Amino acid sequence: MLLYTSSWSLFRREVVRFLRQRSRLIGAFIQPVLFWAVLSSGMKASFKPAGYESVSALDYFMPGFMIMIVLFTAIFSTFSIIEDRKDGFLQGLLVSPAPRLSIVIGKLAAGSFLGVLQALVFFLISLPFTEQSMSFINFVFSIVILLWIGFTLTGLGFLFAWKMESTQGFHSVIMLVMLPMWFFSGAFFPVTGIPTWMQMCMKLNPLTYGMDMIRLTMAKELPKIEQIGTPAIFFAIFTLLIVFFSVKITKRN
Amino acid sequence: MSITIQIDQISYSYKDHQALNGVSIEIPAGSIVGVLGPNGSGKSTLFKLITTSLNMQKGTAKYGEYIVGKDSAEIRKKIGVVFQSPALDGHLSVKENLLYHGQFYGLTRVQLKTRVDELLQDFNLADRSNDTVKTLSGGLKRRVELCRAILHNPEVLILDEPSTGLDPNARLDFWDTLEKLQIKTGLTILFSTHWFEEAEMASHLAILSHGKLIAYEEPSKLREQLGGYTLELHTEHTQTLIKELTKSDNLNITPKEKFVQVSGIKTKQDGMAILNNLNDQLDGFSLSPASLKDVYLNLTGEEFVMEDN
After folding, report:
1. In whole angstroms, what is the distance from residue A115 CA to residue A113 CA?
2. Residue among A1, A91, A96 minimizing CB distance to B83
3. How far is the alpha carbon of A95 from chain B, nearest alpha carbon, in Å?
4. Is residue B309 part of a domain?
5. Which of B54, B104, B108 sits opposite A93 (nearest CB)?
6. Which partner for B82 in A105, B159, B163, B250 could form a disulfide, CB atoms 3.0-4.6 Å apart?
7. How many independent structural domains does chain B possess?
8. Are residues B137 and B164 in the same domain?
């Protein structure tokens, strides 16, 4: 009961707060949309990656930029942890009986929900320009996968934010971690037809498996279990590790 | 509904210095106990330890049968904490803050609705309930913070420097609310302060200096022990004055930078007699009933330094 009420409370608060701070909305949403529009239009003619010859740049970049929105929101929503510590809100939370797991769940779920909400808006806006042919069940499946990815990325932000004292410091550190993660995830180019060292980077990058999953679900047909099984297992391990360490750092005084 | 707190031989060290050194205090159920000390005396560390915000190194603290560290989850349900900087979200309204916070204690929104409305009425906050917290004055914020701390009907209320940042009127108002609350609910109150005026509110006062407990008594008894009156004698020739004064017994003489303090004077007449004897040597003087400031000075031999005021 306590786990439920406190997670839910933190989730709601986080969402209300985010929606009241317009600048965050703009930062996390407009930027990726601009990147997507400019990059995919500019590369329309030259973009012919191995194995994706029949796919247009706009379509290829779609899932990647949806993940970018989720990623940016994850970063912006974990800013609140540093602010909460500075403003004193966190100290009140930490002397309450709220289970530490609920702090993690509340924050991560909120970051994920907000990110996916914006990714969906982006998806709807971009629909007329792409050749999307997802079935409804694939669409639902994609949302679930996106929520999962958002939860995990917010967790990564949470781990970094917990010990940080300034939002500026956090911003520069997290950008250094998350942007390379995104670049080497297959958002920009597929794993095939690139130098070996880059292939290695991509295979070691947990987000690559998230990207694999979202590409599989944002398709005409439902992915087969042998296609989605491996990335799902790798990504699930990553999620569990993140949650485990997040709870662990909140317990340390 | 209240509970006894037993603090037993607590010591705590940070990397470079020892913040607490074998502090033991027993706080009876339903009492109002103050912890007085300047910045760096160890009060913040003590409060962090007993509110479960910091892990114990040495010694124990117990709330009734519950031991800090072992039963922290249970203890967190029983205590309410008012922090120096209110633990409120400035972007949310007064009511939202209370509703969200109550859920950390396992209360549902339905249960909370009535409780919050009731508290807002009691604390004269009803007309501000929909305003965002950042628009409130310091005094009002502190009152909301108090509401937040007692939402879940705690048995112990712990306040860390509750008057910081409040003007004298707001401070009086805050204490008035707090005393009414104590009478109504009988909860145990523990507060820290570096204000002597505020320390007077305590039924028992613990004085901390350099991480050690140097006194634990009723404020009035502390003053009695020191003697009734204190003299401050201003002169250019402190040494000759001290020599003169040491001729008579039972006087507690503390040389200061620009004056000599004489405490332990039993009556006002005794004080006047000393003044008459020294009349020619003095540039100025003051004779006053011993204050807690004198008590502190007498106990530690140090002037009470406040850094942040």
Report:
1. 5
2. A91
3. 6
4. no
5. B104
6. B159
7. 2
8. yes
The Cα A66–Cα B183 span in angstroms is: 58
Q: Is the Cβ of A250 closer than 8 Å to some Cβ of chain B? A: no
Q: Which of A1, A87, A250 to mutate to test the interface with B (most CBs of B within 10 A)?
A: A87
Is B148 within the bounds of a domain?
yes
Task: Examine the domain organization and report whether B67 and B131 are in the same domain.
Answer: yes
Query: A21–B85: do the CB atoms touch at under 8 Å?
Result: no
- Same domain flag for B214 and B232: no
- Kindly report the CATH number assigned to the domain that includes residue B215: 3.40.50.300
Give the pairing type, strands B156-160 and B79-82.
parallel
Give the residue extent of every domain in chain A: 2-251
Structure tokens at A28: 């996390």
Q: Please tell me if residue A97 touches chain B, with a CB cutoff of 8 Å.
A: yes
Q: What ipTM does the predicted assembly reach? A: 0.81
Q: Which residue of B has its CA nearest to A106?
A: B104
- In order along its 253 residues, chain A shows pLDDT tens digits of 889 999 999 999 999 988 887 777 677 677 777 887 887 777 777 777 766 777 777 777 888 888 988 998 888 888 889 988 888 899 999 999 999 999 999 999 999 999 999 899 888 888 888 777 788 888 999 999 999 999 999 999 999 999 888 888 888 888 888 888 988 888 877 777 778 888 888 888 999 999 989 988 888 778 888 888 899 999 999 999 999 999 999 987 6
Helix (H, G, I), strand (E, B), or coil: what is residue A33?
Answer: helix
Q: Which of B92, B96, B104 sits opposite A96 (nearest CB)?
A: B104
User: Listing from the earlier edge strand, what are the strands of the sheet with B204-209?
Assistant: B79-82, B156-160, B188-193, B32-36, B204-209, B212-217
